[in-house]
Specification:
Structural class: mainly alpha
Helix content: over 70%
Number of helices: 4
Order of helices and strands: HHHH
Radius of gyration: 20 Å
Shape: elongated
Distance between the termini: 45 Å
Oligomer: single chain
Strand content: under 5%
Length: 108
């Protein structure tokens, strides 16, 4: 995130002073894009892995686990094909899990 927020303003400052983009702007932009792709794909994969963990848990309904698995796999495939989902889409699984009722505590 720091790279995304710093490369553009840095290059714009140099461009405003010299009317030329720095030579390192293109490689840094490609690196920024690669980091963002890794972030998006790994987050969707994490949602699927978390869904498999929920399927093995007796405390949560299987529907939550299957939703997490399916949504994560859908996100990976969709991002790989189209190259772009909005970044807030990675937060759908935590949102649904946060709204799910908590399991009742086991009596001890």
């Amino acid at each position: 995130m720091g790279i995304r927020l710093r490369i553009g303003p840095w290059a714009a400052q140099i461009f405003s002073e010299t009317a030329l983009l720095p030579d390192s702007f293109t490689p840094l932009s490609l690196l920024e894009s690669a980091f963002f792709d890794i972030f998006m794909l790994s987050t969707f994969m994490a949602s699927s892995i978390y869904g498999f963990a929920l399927l093995n848990s007796a405390q949560f309904p299987n529907g939550l686990g299957w939703f997490s698995v399916a949504y994560g796999l859908f996100g990976v495939v969709s991002y790989a094909i189209s190259g772009g989902l909005i970044p807030i889409m990675v937060l759908a699984v935590p949102l649904v899990l946060g709204m799910a009722p908590l399991p009742s505590p086991e009596p001890q």
